[in-house]
């Protein structure tokens, strides 16, 4: 799907991509990680045909700048920071759908699954939405249309646990789509991908396969029992959609499989108050 | 299953891409123009801009009506002359600054990064934005003038339609000229600050090369009149100003001997044609240069 040979991009005297070689096969789910300034965003912008470059780059056999619209027609993109658009939600959906030759219906359906009622917000300016709502809408635009390459820049950073679970399920429905998921934290994306590529100063410094990747649509039933009631721990668990039972010491809920590391990180700060922590993968029919 | 459905939609999309491209490009051009119009209408600068032109016409009417109590209403011509002079002062700087702020600002803020990740053609994006912006900057000025004409017609005052039409064409040429210059600057400048600075400097140079500097040069350096007139003819603001003068002073008596040089070179009708064609052509040429730079460079 993606082939880069000696891909180089410089801004004035700064070389941001340094003769980068990369091959991503169809259907691979790749995490693109690295510190700020490693070249992740620059690589993404080259793939989207937004930057000129030296060397060779092909997406689906086409050169992204020369065959820009053809490449972008098959590419869904979610940016890290939502653009400061004044247009209403309906206007943005209509524009995106029209230029992609699609209808807004599938995008609205994806938004609904993420917990966003796009129709109710149809006339609200995009810029007035919360960070999470903006992210859901941009994901809906990317996933609500036909594309076989998804370029996602910190896509789930602003999502609540329920929306994250829906997002992972949506990704799982595209087993043949190639995904490039950028993040500066490996733990954010490790469970989503089958391969990790780390960039540093514009070069690939690590290219590794991920063992034991959880299914994207896996769901873990979880039971937490505290030594004694704790409002702080209860609040944290409530934010993950857990329901309390008993005398406020027992909590039950479900988390998305790819979120297990994130969940364990969130619950770790209450480790001293844990009596029981049980995780069990739900059986699929 | 869902993936199969996606594959068939991808195939349908690819088939749609084979549909006549010219039709698709025009449709995208129109969509981008509408997008830009919508974004502009929601911006504060547009409210100020529209209020300014509406306010100018309202004020001119107030003064015109006050004057009419003493001397009798002088007709619409005088109002239009005053209006067009004010337009020359306001419209260029407004178009330059708001356009470069909007285009360079959008690039800096990440709007280009996102919207240009959608399969919209670069030509449709650049020229569509220019088309939309032209509508946004020109129509308020035209509507304000139209409102004046409508009010005059309602008051049963004769409307000089020929003059109205020529002013409308001159305003369109001036708008197109400064819009083209602004798009060119926006394509070259990599930040809002640089774009704004360049736009302001350009406006200042053009203002300085109106009569003030030209007369100084003429008097102090004994430069041939043809050269000075040539400089004036290269300045779209001066071209507009002279053509606007010509509509109520057909022999350009106010301009002095320079009028002879003009009329020898163009003739009266020829000069009016030049006054519309030159600024439009200059704007189009600079915009085309901007398009060339935009297409070849980094987009966000």
Number of strand segments of chain A: 13
Query: What is the number of domains of chain B?
Result: 1
Mean pLDDT of chain A: 89
What letter string, H or E per element, gives the SSE order of chain A?
Answer: EEEHEHEHHHEHEHEEEHEEHE
Mean pLDDT of chain B: 82
Percent in helix of chain A = 25-40%
* Regions with little confidence, pLDDT below 50 for 5+ residues of chain B: 65-73
Number of helices of chain B: 13
What's the SSE pattern of chain B? HHHHHHHHHHHHH
Global geometry of chain B: globular
Sketch the major β-sheet of chain B. Answer: none
Structure characteristics:
heterodimer; A: 285 residues; 13 strands; B: 300 residues; mainly alpha; 13 helices; globular
TL;DR?
Chain A is of the alpha/beta class and 285 residues long. Chain A has helices spanning 40-47, 68-73, 89-100, 104-113, 131-143, 161-172, 186-189, 231-239, 260-268, and strands spanning 2-11, 14-24, 29-33, 54-59, 75-78, 149-153, 178-183, 195-200, 203-209, 219-226, 243-245, 250-256, 274-281.
Q: Could you give the topology of this structure?
A:
The complex is a heterodimer of chains A (285) and B (300).
Chain A: E1 2-11, E2 14-24, E3 29-33, H1 40-47, E4 54-59, H2 68-73, E5 75-78, H3 89-100, H4 104-113, H5 131-143, E6 149-153, H6 161-172, E7 178-183, H7 186-189, E8 195-200, E9 203-209, E10 219-226, H8 231-239, E11 243-245, E12 250-256, H9 260-268, E13 274-281
Parallel strand pairs in A: 3-7, 3-8, 5-6, 6-7
Antiparallel strand pairs in A: 1-2, 1-4, 8-9, 10-12, 10-13, 11-12
Helix pairs in contact in A: 4-5
Chain B: H1 2-17, H2 21-41, H3 44-71, H4 76-109, H5 111-115, H6 122-154, H7 161-188, H8 192-208, H9 211-221, H10 225-234, H11 236-248, H12 258-266, H13 268-296
Helix pairs in contact in B: 2-6, 3-4, 3-6, 4-6, 4-7, 4-8, 4-11, 6-7, 7-8, 7-11, 7-13, 9-10, 11-13, 12-13
């Amino acid at each position: 799907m993606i082939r880069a040979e000696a891909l180089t991009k410089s801004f004035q005297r700064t070389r941001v991509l340094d003769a980068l070689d990369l091959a991503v096969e169809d259907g691979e789910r790749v995490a693109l990680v690295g510190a700020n300034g490693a070249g992740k965003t620059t690589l993404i912008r080259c793939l989207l045909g937004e930057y000129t470059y030296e060397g060779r780059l092909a997406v689906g056999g086409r050169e992204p700048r020369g065959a820009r619209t053809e490449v972008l027609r098959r590419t869904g993109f979610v940016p890290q920071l939502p653009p400061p658009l004044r247009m209403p939600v309906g206007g943005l959906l209509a524009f995106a759908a029209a230029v992609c030759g699609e209808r807004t219906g599938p995008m609205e359906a994806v938004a609904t699954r993420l917990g966003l009622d796009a129709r109710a917000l149809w006339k609200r300016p995009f810029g007035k939405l919360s960070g999470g709502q903006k992210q859901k809408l941009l994901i809906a635009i990317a996933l609500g249309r036909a594309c076989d390459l998804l370029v996602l820049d910190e896509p789930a950073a602003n999502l609540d646990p329920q929306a994250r679970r829906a997002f992972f399920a949506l990704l799982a429905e595209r087993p043949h789509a190639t995904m490039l998921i950028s993040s500066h934290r490996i733990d954010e994306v490790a469970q989503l991908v089958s391969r990790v590529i780390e960039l540093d100063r514009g070069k690939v410094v690590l290219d590794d396969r991920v063992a034991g990747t959880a299914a994207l649509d896996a769901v873990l039933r979880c039971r937490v029992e505290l030594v004694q009631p704790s409002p702080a721990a209860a609040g944290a668990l409530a934010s993950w959609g857990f329901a309390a039972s008993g005398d406020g010491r027992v909590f039950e809920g479900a988390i998305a499989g790819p979120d297990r590391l994130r969940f364990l990180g969130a619950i770790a700060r209450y480790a001293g108050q844990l009596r029981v922590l049980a995780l069990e993968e739900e059986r699929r029919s | 299953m869902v993936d199969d459905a996606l594959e068939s939609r991808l195939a349908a999309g690819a088939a749609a891409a084979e549909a006549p491209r010219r039709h698709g490009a025009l449709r995208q051009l129109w969509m981008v123009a509408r997008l830009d119009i919508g974004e502009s209408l929601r911006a504060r600068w547009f409210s100020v801009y529209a209020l300014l032109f509406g306010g100018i016409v309202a004020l001119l009417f107030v003064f015109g009506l006050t004057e009419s109590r003493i001397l009798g209403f002088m007709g619409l011509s005088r109002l239009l002359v005053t209006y067009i002079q004010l337009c020359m002062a306001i419209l260029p700087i407004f178009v330059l600054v708001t356009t470069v702020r909007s285009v360079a600002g959008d690039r800096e803020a990440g709007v280009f990064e996102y919207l240009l990740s959608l399969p919209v053609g670069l030509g449709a994006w650049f020229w569509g934005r220019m088309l939309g912006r032209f509508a946004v900057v020109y129509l308020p000025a035209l509507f304000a003038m139209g409102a004046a004409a409508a009010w005059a017609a309602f008051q049963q005052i004769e409307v000089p339609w020929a003059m109205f039409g020529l002013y409308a064409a001159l305003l369109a040429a001036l708008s197109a000229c400064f819009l083209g210059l602004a798009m060119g600057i926006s394509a070259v400048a990599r930040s809002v600050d640089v774009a704004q600075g360049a736009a302001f400097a350009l406006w200042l140079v053009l203002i300085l090369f109106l009569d003030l500097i030209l007369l100084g040069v003429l008097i102090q350096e004994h430069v041939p009149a043809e050269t000075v007139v040539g400089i004036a003819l290269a300045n779209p603001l001066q071209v507009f100003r002279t053509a606007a003068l010509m509509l109520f002073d057909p022999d350009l008596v106010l301009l002095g001997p320079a009028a002879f040089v003009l009329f020898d070179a163009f003739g009266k009708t020829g000069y009016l044609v030049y006054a519309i064609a030159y600024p439009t052509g200059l704007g189009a040429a600079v915009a085309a240069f901007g398009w060339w730079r935009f297409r070849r460079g980094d987009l966000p």
